[in-house]
Amino acid sequence: MEKICAEMTIAKVLMLRPDAQKILMRHGMYCIGCSIGESESLGDAAEMHQIDIEDLLQDLNKESTT
Q: CA-CA distance, 34 to 38, in Å (whole number)?
């Protein structure tokens, strides 16, 4: 599976990993369905929501291998 990175859009992350929604929400990113997710990068969204991008990426990629 393709590794998720901060430069990916939220839409791409959800396309690659539909179960990523629960991980994003667990980290405090509740605007999953927001229209800006089509073009906003995961890194930009994490910064906007004051979420540690490294922790988020670790969880997204760790769970993608299980």
A: 8
Tell me, yes or no, whether 54 lies in a domain: yes
pLDDT, one tens digit per residue, over 23-53 is: 999 999 877 777 777 788 999 999 999 999 9
Residue 35's pLDDT is 76
Q: Kindly state whether residue 22 falls inside one of the protein's structural domains.
A: yes
- Tokens for 50? 């004051």
Residue 57 sits in which domain range?
A: 10-64
